[in-house]
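Can't attach files on this board, so I'm pasting raw text. These are the components:
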Amino acid sequence: VRNECYGIAVLVLLVVPALLPVSGGVGLAAQTADSATAEGQADTASATPAGIPDDLRDPETRSQALARILEVAESREGPVRTLWVQGLAVAEKTSPEIGARAVEALLRAEAGDIEAAAWALAEWPGPDEMKGDDRAALLALAARLLDGVDPEGGAQLRERLLAAHPAAPEAVETRLRLARYLAARESDEDRSRALALVEDLIVDTPDHPLAPEARRFLAQLRRGV
Amino acid sequence: VSPAPSPARALASVRRHLHQMGAGVAVVGMLGLAAGVFLLAWLLVGPGWAAGSPAPLLLVVVGLLLLGAGGVLLIRFLRRWGSDEWLTREVERQAGLPRGALRAQLELDRAPPDGASPALIHAGSATLLARMQGPPARLAGRPGQGLARLLRTLGGVGAVLALLATGALILAPERSQAAVGGLLGPTAVLAGPILPPLELLGPETPIARGDRPQVRISAPERPRVTLHWQLRGEPVERMAVVVTEGHGAFQLPPLDAGVRVWATAADGARSPELLLEPADALLLTDLSVELEFPRYMNRDSERLRGLPAELEIPAGTRVTLEGRISGDGGELLLLHEAGDVAVRLEPVGEGGVAGAWQPARSGRLSWTARGGEVDPLRLPPDFQVTLVEDAPPSVALPRPGGDTELPASLRLPILLEATDDVGLARVELWVAPLGADGQVGDPEVQVVPLDGRRELRLAPTLELAGRMPPGGGELLLWARAVDVSPAGQEAVSPRYRLRAPSEAAVRAEARSRVGDAEERVESLVGRSGREARRLREQAAEARVGRSGSGGDFQEREAVREAARGQEALGSEVDAIREELAEARRSLDSLGDADGGLSERISALEEILAELGGGEEAQRLSELMESLESGRRMDTAEELGRLAEARETLQEQLEAALERFRRAALEESFQGVEEDLRTLVEQQAELAKSLAGHEGEPEAGGGSPDAGDPDAGAPDDQAGVADPASTQEALMAGVDPVRERLEELARRLQRQGDDAPSRAATEAAEQLDQAREAMERAAEAARDGDSGGAAGEAGEAGEMAQKALDEVEEARRDWMEAFEEALRAALRQGAEEALALARQQDDLRVRMEGVGRVERGELRSDEAALVQGIRNLANRLEGVNRQLPEVGRELAGALGDALAAGERTVDQLGRSGLWGGGRFDESAALTAEALNRAAILALSGMEQVGQGGGEGSAMDQLMEELESLAQGQEAANQQAQASAGEGAEEGQGASSTEEAASAQRAVADAARSLADGDVGEWSPGDLDELAREAEALAEALESGTVDRELIRRQEELLERFLGAGRMLERDGPTEEREGTPAGVVERPLIPALDPELLRDGRIAPPSPDELRHLTPAERRLVLEYFEALNRSTPPGGAGGGGEL
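---
Top answer:
Structure tokens for the assembled complex are below.
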């Protein structure tokens, strides 16, 4: 568990500078669309990420917007690329407005306002007809954004996701991540909760790709590591 | 309570003993007497009692007299010795009693005198009894002994007689029956009718020596007689001759000497003897005829003993006569009727003569002798020679037997019959296209070599797929037979026209084949699974009993059986594929009218083609070779490997089955929809026509074919034909469609698609209602009520339309459910791939600056992640089965992720010296591959429902960019050549023009692409690329070819390739690089090796080359080469290709 915490800390160190607007030479800041174009890393001069949300909202340009998200994702590296692919997944499976919100959050995070972007996404009431799974996807994305800067906030969002949408596709990973967070705390109650979450994951979804990791984590928890 | 013993009782027991012995003597004597009488009768009876014979009566009387006399003597004997006087005397003697003591005691016991003491009488009795101890046989004395002796004697004699009688009974049961019959009814024999006597009649003419005389027998009222004959100096022979209406005949063997002949009958009659003497010896004896048939008949020569009265032989036969001449006959000649000499018999060896000739005409031949005094009687009789000419062969095609329409499978079963009186050289089957304009195209012929067989009856199935002439022509089919005669006589069957089947029938057949293929694949899945389990068990058993000595016989046999089973499965898969290929070929003859069915079937063929081939087939072939050569092997390991191969095949089959099920359902839907649509259209036309003819007089005419979806145009039917008949014809087509609908509903139900299944059932019910309306319409039309008929026909059309709507909706629902399930699976796959990518990102972060101690933990975490990737791959197997286009790419991405993940695990496990600093790179690659998998899954969601086979706009763009790159590469090479790098003198100008032309073509294509609707997916600036291509074309057209231009061309090529790479989802490929053009060598083409032309035979592939093929494929290849060599004889121009 300590290693996990260490890992998350390193992630914070890696991701946060990358998301900050200050050009640090490494990280996400160097991988913004403009800089990437300037360095010739991506032939996406026309793919201005800022315009993607509006294009997503417009049914006529939605498919192009999705393609541009993909281009942006391919121009990024490491965890940031994964975040953009996650954004693409959200945009693909949700309504145009929700997808646009997700991309806006990513763009805002890239601009350095990670926490605000994540919380804005999480607190957005959404349209009345918003489906549970769509809400779960937004919460999962927001939680992921917060992992690097506000682990507690991320855990809160995951708690909310599990409480409101326990059957959502994101619930499995959410259980594992929340369990890791809880296990890192000193409280026995939290550790018991973490244990229960991992056990639930293994029992409910034994074939899930995260199940092997969950089993390993469960063994660690039982050993008291 | 047994009475008290007394002398009287003892005496009575002795008397009883004597009586028993007497009874025994009587019984044995009677039996012996009966056996004796029977034997005498058997000896006397002959073939039967002669009518009026007194013998049976005498035997019976004698027997009875002997019996009576014996009985009297026995009774007298017993009476005498049974009296008290004789018996007491004998007992007293045997018991050693004083004479009279026993008798006195008996008197005392019977009538004791007055005053006599009973006690004393009793004491006397007791004393006597004490002296009379012993068995009755001892006390019986001499009479007893006499009777015993008599019994033994009679028993012995009787036993012998009985044995003899039994033997006689077994040896000649009929004779025994006749004997007993006579004894039981002697008076019947005595008083029986006396049959007429037997008579023999010999031949009236003198019998030549060596002839076989016929003897005629007159035997009235007898069913059969026995003919006896005895050649002088030889034993008697006999033969039963059946008598018909009082007469019979028998041909004696050849007579060399006198013979004595007589006949006997079952009633004992015997004919007078007949003595036959052969006449003097013939001049020519031991005559034999050898027939040598014409060589083309390929028939062995025949030798006849003796000369037949008529010789019927094929024309061209050579006749050789051989014999022995006795005495001086001079010169023996055989003459034609005209008197000319046919053959002269020349002396051969000692006493032999021979002569040979080939009869040129039929006629009677007679013998004559010249130069000697010969009695004509001594010459052989005349004989007839008949020459049989070789008749031409006959050939027919009883099936089809006339012009016919081909079945939808384009496989026509035929029956070919050919005969010839001598032999057939070959039979040919000809098929030629007959165009719509009546022109007969080049025929194809299949030759059946027969090598002289007299008769051929073949029932092959002609595969005519792909042979139908384009434009709706027909085929002509006929057969030709050629016999073996040197003239090569031939016969040709009538020519039959084969019409192409209707398009609907071809499509229906093809769809039916898809359904059949699904069932067969399903059966294979079950079979393969069972066999895989059995093989696993066998492998486990073999492993337990492994001796390490290479396996015993049973285990090797198990391996052999398993290998054969594997081969059989492969052959079965090949057979299914071939069935589908046939259906596809039939569809191909329809052109575009198959609605893409041909492509869909082709895709199914490809699925089957991928099963169990390649390395596995080669390994199986090697295993079979090892088994055949008896090479040592680890049978347990081989069985395990075979089980594994079987399991793999089963998995592949299961995957294929999913596709087949879906394809079968899809085709069922489409077939039903097509039928319903046709029905709706025709019904609507009929209703319209009926409404238009309302009030008009009823039109007469024939009825179209019932149920034929292509039966004439509806206008013709409705307007010209009888509407009632037309309606009935349409009605007849409803039931087949309904059955297909029900079958579709069952299929859907079986696969758990309940809602579409219910919809299909409802459609079937709608169709029922349509049928009822059709019935009413037909009835109204028959009654002349055109208005009513039109209404009912319209209603029927509406019902059919509703059924069609139901089916279409069911198909949409079914497709949507399927696609939604696929999309959900892909969506989930994307989520899970992303989850893993995030996990990998986290791990990668932890890898930064990790120490050696923490590496173990990380390694375990990475291993868990790798296992997770495996889980994901397994979970996406269903996608791979249903959407292979996406599944393949997904599997590739996951494979990359798995490989990178395993590499990470491996590098994390190494020591710092060897593995340091590399694992984070492979971890990054893992994350990247997982992200790619997620993207592919997401883009796959878009492809679901787009038909799979159709490429997306991006795919089309990629293809066009690739085409542009190829064009540019060619233009570059030509520009290089025109610049003098490889071009010959004097060719520069033309090369520059060619280069300019090629560059212009590229420029035009690029411009067209840039101006087209390529959407926002367009990578890079196509317009700029087009402009550059145009500039290069202009430069070349102006004759400018320099290094700068060539560099710009290469750059443009790179940009085309780069643009294409950008569109590839799986990243750039290393092998697609633009290279500058080099010198193109144009070697002279050498002349063909004369050896290749010397022999027309084309060598088949070697066994090594064939090894990697399946047995079925090997057989096909070898048969192909065999057919190839057969159809191209050296130096000969074949009459056409093989069918």
